[in-house]
Design goal:
The chain is mainly beta and about 400 residues long. It is built from two helices and 28 strands. The radius of gyration is 23 Å and the shape is globular. About 5% of the residues have low confidence. Bound molecules: 2-acetamido-2-deoxy-beta-D-glucopyranose (NAG) (3 copies). This is Aldose 1-epimerase. InterPro entries: Aldose_1-epimerase (IPR015443), Aldose_1/G6P_1-epimerase (IPR008183), Gal_mutarotase_sf_dom (IPR011013), Galactose_mutarotase-like (IPR047215), GH-type_carb-bd (IPR014718).
């Protein structure tokens, strides 16, 4: 009796140990193939290439961490944002769209209203009289269904119901992030797609705030050097709504055809509220009076081309922006004022980041002379943008 009892005890112990080892192994298996439509939403999706690591949140399809290598090969996070244990700001409207995909219509719609096919639509005004970045609860505050496609690619999808923030039609929108490692550069390629059940304006944009010096400590981007391939820009009124004019950049502080430091002429940009750049730059092919001619399903008929390039002489990190969009919103972090504590508790100062949002022109739904942004049933919105990171050693 006694020996066989001992034997069965041993067998039981073995079974328990084996079960425990199995559980431990399970925990260690990559838990990446998560589909939030089928189960619990993942907190984060991580994709990586040799020289770049990207963390994406299902909330707002947000780029929460963007790690690139500086001129010495050291890793730096160059995207402003919040820590994973502090996600509330992304959802409750306190985040100024850090890293988020904004929609249904990025940027401003004057008087939060527009006419389409003879009908007037009223949107939620969330920026004075105007609608900004999709309204009070725009796409950046919704949880998207998230799917990791591979080690280097992830897709996030959102269904926006008919009447969402006042917009007509049910829209199914997605953004796919894909990393492509080159010999001396690494791309974050973004494909924004949308389809609709009724005509609606569409203007999706990635609103990442970059600081190419890294976001581990407070610093500004005034010494970053920027070049933008724009000969024209769209002047704005006191509510930051384009007046409808398309003006040459020549002789203005908006002329970045030759590279300049962001801070060099920034004091010349005065407007109500904090000064600085918050300007739609007109990209190639949309110059002057022909501006309205060239869009198809809200994007350019031209293939992806380089729109701008920024580098930080200190870190040696360079970011090129490529797109098939007609416009590029250049924002110099004017409203940052140290009141927001982001990752690691770092307080982001004024001009602590820049944004370069590829988009159609602001308020284009109310400006017939601008490239148009109405998507109709059967049409397919395919907006592309590339962040190309490279080391600049001068
Ligand atoms: C949003 O969340 C942050 C962080 O938890 C909190 O400090 C802030 O008060 C919240 N704001 C609103 C409007 O709920
Ligand atoms: C809203 O529009 C009214 C009427 O045009 C104007 O008087 C007011 O200043 C505007 N509000 C803001 C915040 O600009
Ligand atoms: C934009 O400017 C860069 C120089 O920074 C140039 O290499 C690129 O070809 C230009 N792109 C277009 C479309 O003009």
């Amino acid at each position: 009796m006694a020996p066989s009892n001992q034997q069965s005890l041993r067998i039981w112990l073995l079974v328990i140990v084996a079960a425990l080892m199995f559980l431990v192994l399970l925990q260690r298996l990559p838990s990446r193939q998560v589909d939030s439509q089928k189960g619990e939403a993942p907190i984060i999706l991580a994709i990586g290439a040799q020289d770049l690591e990207l963390h994406i949140l299902p909330i707002g399809a947000v780029v929460q961490r963007l790690i690139v290598r500086d001129k010495l090969g050291a890793k730096r996070d160059v995207a402003l944002g919040f820590d994973l244990d502090d996600l509330a700001p992304y959802q409750n409207g306190t985040s100024p769209y850090f890293g988020a995909v904004v929609g249904r219509v990025a940027n401003r719609v004057k008087n939060a209203a527009f006419q389409l096919d003879g009908k007037t639509y009223h949107l939620t005004a969330n920026d004075g009289n105007n609608s900004l970045h999709g309204g009070k609860k725009g796409w950046s505050m919704h949880t998207w269904s998230a799917k990791q496609l591979s080690k280097t690619s992830a897709k996030l999808t959102l269904v926006s119901p008919d009447g969402d923030e006042g917009y007509p039609g049910q829209v199914t929108a997605s953004v796919t992030y894909t990393l492509v490692q080159g010999r001396d550069s690494t791309d974050v390629r973004m494909l924004f797609e949308a389809a609709t059940t009724a005509p609606t304006p569409i203007n999706m944009a990635q609103h990442c705030y970059f600081n190419l010096g890294g976001v581990h400590e407070p610093s500004d981007v005034l010494d970053h050097r920027i070049q933008i391939n724009s000969s024209y820009y769209t002047p704005v009124d006191s509510e930051t709504i384009p007046t409808g004019e398309v003006e040459p950049v020549k002789g203005t502080p908006f002329d970045f055809r030759e590279e300049h430091a962001i801070g060099e002429r920034i004091a010349q940009i005065t407007r109500p509220g904090p000064g600085g750049y918050d300007t739609n730059m007109v990209l190639w092919g949309f110059d002057g009076p022909d501006a309205a001619l060239h869009t198809h399903n809200c994007v350019s008929a031209i293939e992806v081309q380089q729109a701008a390039s920024v580098h930080d002489p200190e870190s040696g990190i360079q970011l090129d922006i490529l797109t098939n969009s007609p416009g590029l919103q250049f924002y110099s972090g004017n409203f940052l004022d140290g009141s927001i504590a982001g990752k690691g508790g770092v307080r982001y100062p004024q001009h602590g980041a820049f944004a370069l949002e590829t988009q159609v022109f602001p308020n284009s739904i109310n400006t017939p002379s601008f490239p148009q942004c109405v998507l109709r049933p059967g049409g397919k919105y395919e907006h592309k943008a590339i962040w190309r990171f490279r080391k600049k050693i001068d």
